[in-house]
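Example 3.2
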Amino acid sequence: MKRIVVIGSKPDAVIPDGDAIYCANVSIVYYADQVARFGQIVNVITPMAIVDQKPRNSSGEQYCYTTRWEAMLTARRAQLVILESCNANRMIEGLRRAGYDAPITSISDQERRKLVARVSGCEDPILSADFFRLPPKLKARYAGSAISITLKRIFDQSKTCNPVFRPSTGIISLLCAIDQHGADCEYVVAGIGMNNRSVYIHTERSSAKRSSGASIPQHVFADRKVLRTISSRYNITTTEAELMGMLPPFTGVSKPDDHSVR
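Structure, written as tokens:
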């Protein structure tokens, strides 16, 4: 059975061998040596994780963005899938000028939502059981955001919902892999967790600050619901201990073809 590995940039990921690897954002930089051994490499990114969008006070952060960009240029055989296509054109032009000749595609917010719905059956804004267990005041505040974006989309389908209600780039990478390779493959998730995830894409993975003081962590509730949903539809395992309540552990032995898309 063909094995597809999907990785995020959580430190100390256990990355098994496979036929193809899908890398979320800068994981292709952090795990460059391990990624290089795969025959097919796909890098799923948001431009803001690679290219600095605004001036920074920290020279360390600016150096980090520069280092990521340079590392991407060395991975010239990796197919790029760029999320948020409204910000992608300038990035694609820069990559082409620098000699990046691998395939590059961009996915708009609307296309991303269709991908999530097509593969997982979940449509954003994604409301999960975790969300409904929140304290009433917090739940009411975020529910208002979900209702607002739903109403706005009646007139403008390009509107993007709060990150609380949509999957992370790591989970989008998994969905991209499934969408491309289908239900007859084995998928292994590594380097993607649910705790302290904002540290993964910053200059120092161990000391990044939480984004904008959010009361609810971005993407986590949506990611949990998507993982729980697709775990029964596809052959997915994980090397991450904190995901093993949602996905079976990877044992190194491919599971039989007993899964079915429902």
